[in-house]
Amino acid sequence: MNYAVIFAGGTGTRMNSKTCPKQFLKLHGKEIIIYTLEHFQNHPDIDGISVVCVEGWIDYLQKIIKKNDITKVRWISPGGSTGQESIYNGLKAMEGEIPEDSLVLIHDGVRPLIDEELISDNIAEAEKFGNAITVVKAYETVVVMGEDGELKENIPRDRCALARAPQTFRYKDILGEHEKCRSMGIDNMTDSATMMGAAGMTLHPVYGKPDNIKITTPMDFYTFKGLIEAKENFQIMGVD
Questions:
Q1: Radius of gyration over alpha carbons of the chain, in Å?
Q2: Nearest to 118 by CA among 172, 171, 167, 82
Q3: Of 50, 98, 123, 222, which one has the greatest count of Cβ atoms within 10 A?
Q4: Beta strand 142-145 with 26-27: parallel, antiparallel or unpaired?
């Protein structure tokens, strides 16, 4: 079975929004988090969704989930003090209610431009190898900077990729590693791939599309708006 943990526990300080966290900003009357959840709701192979939410916005999240008929959300948990803790909360909420060998797709609530193909590819790769990490190829030159601020090394682009989401693991593996990190006082892992890589797991890539962006800044929001409106215009004109 396959489940999703959607992380929407951040407050979005870089968005400069004084009205609400970035995941609740609206485009065409619909919140960003709903755009994200709909992809997992509509995918035939996703059996349930666990959402991690800013604690003060849980009631609002419940209302818009009901309004938009997102029926697969079974667990809603408050966010933690770090992203690592928030993901742990979302995983822990499912404990005892799903099979330990289930696949869990961990995804950002503010990464709404995923599609059915990417979810399917994550599931297929993780079924074969036990994990799947969404990446996109690096299209610009990547450089390493020294401690003195000088540029030290150019890394060939064909050796580089940017880690994105979803990131997919067996439930027992990812929850077990979270428990281990907590017992050791480790709370600064930037994402699940970093955590599992540090634990010695060989990670397997799934290549996504460049437009699978995370909406962090106002510019990201306007990029999202432009991509959604372009897609709608193509549909009106009968272009896939």
A1: 18
A2: 167
A3: 50
A4: unpaired
Pairing of strands 161-170, 131-137: antiparallel
Report angle CA 158, 159, 164 to the nearest 5 degrees: 100
Structure tokens at 203: 């990670």
- Residue 20's closest CA among 52, 48, 49, 61? 61
pLDDT tens by residue, 213-225: 999 899 999 998 8
Which amino acid is present at 217? T
Query: Cβ(153)–Cβ(45) under 8 Å?
Result: no
Q: Assess contact for 171 and 101: CB atoms under 8 A.
A: yes
Instruction: Find the angle CA(25)-CA(123)-CA(72) to the nearest 5 degrees.
Output: 50
- As given in the structure block, the two tokens for residue 59 are 């009631």
Query: Structure pTM?
Result: 0.90
- Phi, psi (rounded to 5 degrees) for 239: -105, 130
Query: Tokens in use for 116?
Result: 């059915």
Is pLDDT at 34 greater than 90 in this prediction? Answer: yes
What pLDDT, on a 0 to 100 scale, did the predictor assign at position 151? Answer: 85
Q: Are 68 and 25 in contact (CB under 8 A)?
A: no
